Amino acid sequence: MELYAIITRMIERELYNIILERLNQFPAVALLGPRQVGKTTLADAISKERNCIYLDLESPSDVMKLSEPELYLSLHEDKLVILDEVQRMPHLFQILRGLIDSGKRKGLIAGRFLLLGAASLDLLQQSGESLAGRIAYLELSPLNLLEVGTNEINKLWIRGGFPDSFLAMDERQSVIWRENFIRTYLERDIPALGPRVPAETLRRFWMMLAHNQGCLFNAAQLARGLAVDGKTITRYLDLLVDLLLVRRLYPWHNNTGKRLIKSPKIFVRDSGLTHTLLGINNFESLLSHPIVGMSWENFVIENIISTLPSTATTYFYRTAAGAEIDLLIEFSPTRCWAIEIKRSLTPQVSKGFYHAIDDTKPEASFIIYSGNEDYQIKQQIWVKNLTGIMKMLWSDFQKTSSMK
């Protein structure tokens, strides 16, 4: 428990000030992330500093308080109202919009609502009212390497970043936690959102994505494996993406004059969940498994994305001729970084990487590897470890956030 408290405090230090800044600027702030990632812990820390009302929308008693939501929330307009599991009551968005607009006429400009959700913005807005211009969005990822320390990299990789999985007493307990996490999503959380998908079918689909970690999305191939049609497969994928469990990494497109790959790459976002879906229960088993290379690539990508400025977008780049970059970070239409990922102490890149750099013309290019030293190779390409690139990006994230 002591270690758990230390790490959760570290997470609070990284995002705490950014959330407060957003609350000082916007009437509403949404903190999104999958279940059990630490959103409530972070909100609890904020509630100790402000005059708050906390409502858990999975609690029947709290839901009853909102039987007349406009009346109840109007009674607490002088407080920060924290609404946990807000995806369970998306109709609240329309009411919040009206309360925010009426509050502005009374001088209540910022810091009205903190919304915690285990679903993406797109899913929240499918049946809810848009709060565009009234709300800021932040995503809380599972623990990353900066939060747990470089010495824990292999443990973080095999167990993933969910705090209860990472901090388990041993590998067996970590695996048990992840198995139950997956079962709970399939049997309780997803049905509660409305989709009528058999739990076993969705589990098989999730496992197929893990087996094809980092591959181009091929709906027809996956449809044959589940004996469904391609539209159904796309619907399953949309659901797991909206629940922040799977990442759809889109290809980068520009007027390069090249024949570019158009299908997205698909990753199960948390490496620990990937390994559990594949029956990989310890580090030695991972090293001998065919998925090891793509698991490492996804682990690096997710850690990097967790430290990006909120304005950045991510892609991969691949042409029909074989030019390829694992991760392109676009900070603006005229500024991007190229990142190639190698799980090696002596990383070597193919000619295709150099051709891709010529095509995309990034501001900076990096090879992320397993060693400790930073050094430069030809064509202004830096070789760095994962911690080093994350520190660079987190610094940009903080600077960008403080300017908003």
Summarize the structure in words.
The chain has 404 residues and is α/β, with parallel strands linked by helices. It has two domains: 2-139, Rossmann fold; 145-402, no CATH class. 47% of the residues lie in helices and 17% in strands. The chain has 18 helices and 13 strands. The protein has helices at 2-25, 39-47, 60-65, 69-75, 92-104, 121-126, 145-148, 153-159, 163-166, 171-192, 199-211, 219-226, 230-242, 271-277, 283-287, 292-305, 351-360, 386-402, and strands spanning 28-32, 52-56, 80-84, 113-117, 135-139, 246-249, 265-268, 313-318, 324-332, 335-341, 364-369, 375-377, 381-385. A six-stranded mixed sheet has the order 8-9-10-11-13-12. Helix 17 (351-360) links the parallel strand 10 (335-341) and strand 11 (364-369). Helix 4 packs parallel to helix 5, helix 8 packs across helix 14 (271-277) and helix 12 (219-226) crosses helix 13 (230-242). The protein is globular, with a radius of gyration of 22 Å. The two termini are 36 Å apart. Mean pLDDT is 87; it is low at 4-13.
Condensed summary:
47% of the residues lie in helices and 17% in strands. With 404 residues, it is an alpha/beta fold. Strands 8-9-10-11-13-12 form a 6-stranded mixed sheet. The protein has a 5-stranded parallel sheet with strand order 2-3-4-1-5, with helices on one face.
Strand content: 15-25%
Separation, N- and C-terminal Cα atoms: 36 Å
Residue runs with pLDDT of under 50 for 5 or more positions: 4-13
Report the major sheet.
Answer: 6 strands, mixed
Number of domains: 2
**Overall mean confidence score, pLDDT:** 87
User: What structural class results from the helix and strand content?
Assistant: alpha/beta
Report the strand count: 13
Overall shape: globular
- Largest sheet strand order: 8-9-10-11-13-12
Number of helices: 18
